[in-house]
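Let's do one together. I've listed all components of the complex below, 626 residues spread over two lines.
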Amino acid sequence: MKGFLQVQIKKIKKTLSIDYPIPMNRQNFCIILISIFLFSCEEAILGEEAPNTPSQNFEILWNDFDRHYSLFEVRGINWKQLYQIYRPQVTDDLSNEGLWEVMTEMVEHLDDSHTTLYNGNIRYKSGYALNEQSTAEFSAELLLSKYIATKTEVGSEDELLFGQVKDKNIGYIYLGTMDGDNPSVMDEIIRNFENTKAIILDIRQNSGGDDRYSARIAQAFSDGVHEIYSVQTRNGKGYNDFDEKNIYHTQFDGDNSYTKPVIVLTDRKTISAGEVFLLHMKAFDHVIQMGDTTAGDFSTVSNMRFLPNGWKYVYSIQQFLLPNGESLDGIGHEPDVFVKNTEASINAQTDLVLEEALRYLSNEHGLE
Amino acid sequence: MKKILIYTCCFLLLVGMVKAQEVIRPVDKLLSLRVGYQDNYLKDNILSPLHYRGAGLQYGLSYRRIGENIFGISVGYGAGEVRSNETSGFINTFLDINIGVQYLFRIKNDKESLDFYMGGAYETNAFFIDWNDLDAFSYTSSQGLVIKGLVAKRINDKHSIQTSIGVPIVQFLGRPPYNGIDEFIIENQDNPVKIMLQGEPASFGQYLGLDWGLAYAFQILPGLAWNLDYSISFQKVNNLHSYKRMAMTPATGITLKF
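Okay, and this is what the predicted structure of the assembly comes out as:
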């Protein structure tokens, strides 16, 4: 070792043209300083980095889910058993395509479309087949051309428009996302509908967004303050380790509230903050849900997670519980009146869900 | 706790050695501006299992009042990018903000051109990193008392060098929650300062830090000096989601005396 250092010192002295002798202890000191501070030995500072092998990528993903995913218990998933099934399928000779197949197959068991994997070209969502299918069971074009007389798009918000149902004193609102900037605009919309007899509030294909936005939109239809749900974020290695419950209530402003009959239309792709919106709305006596069961994915998703091979993923990190302790994750909001479009009905220019809503208002409330 | 006690005792002993110099020194008020190139090594298990390296510009402004003792205030701001070693796709941006107030006592010595100082500082440091417009983020903030030592050597009327070291002892540490996000962050997402400064007292074993600096000054005019600095900062958080960061910053700037 001493000999090696002397050789290195000679090289450095030659490079720097140092022509006076340096005692050996100073030489050592110089070498150490140069190594640490100038050439910055990364491994010495940060430790060893995980190698980019199929096995290591699988291990990182499985362990990350094991330590952070929040819904193993709620969804009845035996994650450790899945390891026993899928880990033997991963060897360091496995191709990228093979690894992708193993990982997506394993994650599919979660049936949680908040769990998404990205490999650079493909985005895969767990349990998303029904959500995907429902896209063909909804047509905004059909809705607006056949059923809605006037249409006003709200400029400040994405996918928010309102109008009046043709030949009826019934308001119609479409809300496709909970990701807007100004949810109080809903107060103005309901003022426009002051003289209507009812409102159909359509959140089919609602892609979610911000739960606070959902709460503020729902306030425009509120009949009071009700405890509706609690949220806990996983905070430990145990599958049942969660932080304190944050309890949420409906918001209420008696001067700006529409309390005549409201029908909320849903489908399988109504998800996340769209479903949180329903938690608010279903607490009100004058509101019913009609359509298909919603996605059943409530939790906030994690930060994006990264693998050494360049793939990314997110997953659920919270559990939402109703006041009675039950969870709707993996279940969704079951509608008060079940009715579902099919691809064929859409192609036949009929929106069965909207027509059922109009029939319901006629039968139950005498609104022709 | 034992380590904190040992450090605190050393600090008190050294402060006890402080005596007023026999020669009364004139008071200098110095304002320094500096810009540096900060090279970062980072591993933050809340953000990612990967290692990151990258650089950015670092700006600093400081005021020092040097008489018998030194009183100083400093503000630093840096921004840049770090990327993972494994793939160039994961490029993260970072912000690095540092604010500090320090008071250093002169320690008596016989050499006129050499000054030793020892004292303390209250520092707030915040490092924020995010990927793709907050699709992933993490942060480390620390506030608290730091033991500081400084040695200054006047080579001649034109040249001087100094080196300093700082070791945090009692710190209030802010890190993301176990899962990176929780309801507190969601509810306060429009108020990042509130999020980052929400922390807990950290024991010496939980949070380790070290700042070392080497500075050279060339007196251009009686009231103006040119500075060349090199500093190293190391932070380590030991908990379930560990964090390590080392930043090396060569910098240059000017100092105005008034």
